Amino acid sequence: MAKTKSTFVCQRCGATYMRWVGRCTDCGQWNTVAEETLAIPGKHVRSSISGGQKSAPIPVTDEDQPAPPRVSTGIDECDRVLGGGIVAGSLTLVGGDPGIGKSTIMLQISHGLASRGQRVLYISGEESFSQTRLRAQRLGTLSDDLLLLTETELTELKKQLTEGDYGLVVVDSIQSVYSADLPGVPGSITQVRDCASEFLRLAKRSGTPIFLIGHVTKEGSIAGPRTLEHLVDTVLYFEGEGKQALRILRAVKNRFGSTNEIGVFEMTETGLQEVPNPSALFLNERPEGVSGSVVLPSIEGTRPLLVEVQALVCDSNLGSPRRTVTGVNPNRVSLILAVLEKRAGLHFADRDVFVNVAGGVRLDEPAADLAIALALVSSFMEAPVAPRLTAFGEIGLAGEVRGVDMVRQRVAEAAKFGFTTCILPKNCAQDAEDIGETVWPVGRVGQAIEMAMER
Ligand SMILES: Nc1ncnc2c1ncn2[C@@H]1O[C@H](COP(=O)(O)OP(=O)(O)O)[C@@H](O)[C@H]1O
Ligand SMILES: [Mg+2]
User: Fold this and answer.
1) What is the pLDDT of residue 38?
2) Alpha helices, DSSP H only, in 317-366?
3) CB 3.0-4.6 Å disulfide test: which of 36, 79, 214, 255 passes with 225?
4) Average pLDDT value for residue range 389-404
5) Ligand with smallest separation from the Cα of 99
6) Could you identify the atom of ligand 1 that is nearest to the CA of residue 138?
């Protein structure tokens, strides 16, 4: 019998402790640490990514080592997010809220490969054969090369995977898979982590790409994808507001391509439809001539994307006024408010402030600062910014507007959608002077406000 030992594992972030603690020091949550019994692996267990085969050092300059082959998913938006297609032998995690469309997109990707003659194994541990077949029918993804398996025991799955020659394997979901050799119920952190490492070994050894679907909940309290992020090659998150049709596929880790790349989809009855022109979609319902709205040419991965930043500033009757922010980092908004207070003399101390990015987009880049600042000032002054204006640039604590990257792409995207003026950092303005849009270079946030609010 395998030896076992007891450890205490945080069910939220996976941190391990020698004894029970009330609060996880890694993620700061209370009462998330539970006792788990781990099997101590014997000497024969090798965990290298070469899958147990002997390997010798190779010079990094060796050109005979082929780049891993990639196959297209048949869906352009997915290929771009993956960095150009699915890499042979890679392990990818697809995370997202329940009901967001993870099974749907994976069935569509499976069909993309199966319809071009690759055998795809879809392991469905969540839904029965007939449920999955019905869904495949609805999505128009039926194919003889798409094989469904409703097994969830790891040893059995390993056998199936090694026996069949598959171009792609999808595990829906990693939380439903369990190993009879391990303690804990399916979905517990030990089970999820050990089963995922086993799939990693299988993928590397066989060269078959494997996709693991994992649920995350808003509270993140269930053992799930977050504990697997370091293990897998690629982490994709599927996001969106449940009630709206818009869905965004985002790479948050990619050993084979750029992160920050996004794919935009619309959920319809016949499945996820690609949105080839997301800028048009995001600006679709934008009100014209209203205060507090500024269009930002942002960059998502390698692609420019026009998004609307909205702000609402109103009198507060609360002791400590509200700061409600969605789609951007709240700390960034606090910083911008402080700069506006100090450098532009605008007082937000007795005002409620709301900031939102329309369409459910999340902005991570500092280039959004100037658009956020102008939206705040515009709402504060209850006056719209100049018509057909866009703005971008990072704001520093001294009130300076600092340069950002990919200036030409930003200005060109704005020009394509009929915007005529762009306020941008002065030290990168020369990059965009010949595009045909009027550029207003600024060095300080005060200057940007004067230009944007000029009537
Ligand atoms: N008959 C249908 N018509 C249109 N949309 C549907 C239908 N059935 C399911 N959906 C959509 O698919 C979503 C479920 O997607 P699914 O891929 O099962 O999500 P997940 O695997 O992430 O839990 C539902 O939230 C709904 O939006
Ligand atoms: Mg599902």
Assistant:
1) 62
2) 330-344
3) 214
4) 96
5) 1
6) 1
